[in-house]
Amino acid sequence: MGNNGPLIPILGFLTCAAFIYLSLGDLWFRFGGGEPELGFVSRNGTQFVLDGKPLYVNGWNSYWFMDHAVNDHSRHRVGAMLEAGSKMGLTVCRTWAFNDGGYNALQISPGRFDERVFKALDHVIAEAKTHGVRLLLSLVNNLQAYGGKTQYVNWAWQEGVGLSSSNDSFFFDPSIRRYFKNYLTVLLTRKNSITGIEYRNDPTIFAWELINEPRCFTDISGDTLQDWINEMTAFIKSIDKKHLLTVGLEGFYGPKSPKRLTVNPERWASELGSDFVRNSESPNIDFASVHIYPDHWFHDQGFEDKVKFVVKWMLSHIEDGDKELKKPVLFTEFGLSNLNKDYEPSQRDRFYRTIFDVVYKSAKRTRSGAGTLVWQFLIQGMEGFNDDFGIVPWEKDSIQRLMTEQSCRLARVTGRHLQDEKWREICSHRP
């Protein structure tokens, strides 16, 4: 034993080090030093895939995340909403990764970015990771809210390089295309100031959405929009091959589609310069996106007719995903307005249930209906960001229950509820 003298301090040091590692290891994992690596969501034919199993999405929209993460007094709302979503088993949140010009702008002018707002987006992504929620990040707005294509056109016009003052020149003006490609490059290669991960390498991001609800009224043939989609999606994939990509369509059928007469809500829907099948067939598009707003699309329909339309609308697009596109179809916005003259709160519950049932039946049959994202969830004190579709989910027990039940139904289809402790806890008391 006398020869072991030098060994004793070494053993003591190693024992102490092991104790410290075991004691602090959990903190290391929880606060970013060594969090288990998340997998990227991919697709196999008409299915989303995660960790080798199909993934069916039940989620929501909170477009306001980045804007509220800018300021100290409102930043907590992001974490509160993500925590609430996670407790309902929601897996994906769609939110804006753009704010062009105006208040709290991410892109102040072409190529000029506000680091304060970029750090807010960093926070949103880091918070989502903490709560186990993935993000569908939209890259520009067809509408004027948060800048949109109008702001890009104004920038080109102000700098004397714009070809036209038409909002649709966003799609064909070479200068504006360069503006947008520069924005895409900066965003995709952004290194998160909190996690240290470039956006293009972060699996917390479920997918990119090219543009929210694209329309090009000046070319109803659809050629202008299609050329832009092809060019921009190829550009994105040249920088980021890891993430899924979708267009951001409402789902209307174009002037050459036979479904324009049988499925579109009204004639105007085929004259918007977009076409669901043609746009979604673009080779760099990984999944199709569809919105569901019978309140906005019809003027005189009663509630029962709207429900019938919704089922027909969804089944038509799922059929397209199965037979034409061979891609997943994600219903990325849906809602029922509380401004309808015949509105009753119970109608919204039934409306949601109808939509959830269509997706659940599609999942059970391994068809292309890949999930839904409700528009929209908020928290208390956000009246200025609300609309006639907004919900504070914990103030509405029936909606919260419906959302959780749908999460669990979809988890059971793939067996995830048996393998993950979180799912077992969420679904243990659900029928």
UniProtKB/TrEMBL annotation:
GO terms of molecular function: mannan endo-1,4-beta-mannosidase activity
Domain of life of the source: Eukaryota
EC primary class: hydrolase
One Pfam family it belongs to: GH5_mannosidase
Localisation per UniProt entry: Secreted
Entry GO CC: extracellular region
Single GO biological process annotation from the record: polysaccharide catabolic process
EC code(s) of this entry: 3.2.1.78
InterPro entries assigned: GH, Glyco_hydro_5, MAN-like
Spans traversing the lipid bilayer: 6-24
Reactions this protein catalyses: Random hydrolysis of (1->4)-beta-D-mannosidic linkages in mannans, galactomannans and glucomannans
Keywords: Glycosidase, Hydrolase, Membrane, Secreted, Transmembrane, Transmembrane helix
Gene3D superfamilies xrefs: Glycosidases
Residues of the Glycoside hydrolase family domain: 40-377
Family: Belongs to the glycosyl hydrolase 5 (cellulase A) family.
The protein's name: mannan endo-1,4-beta-mannosidase
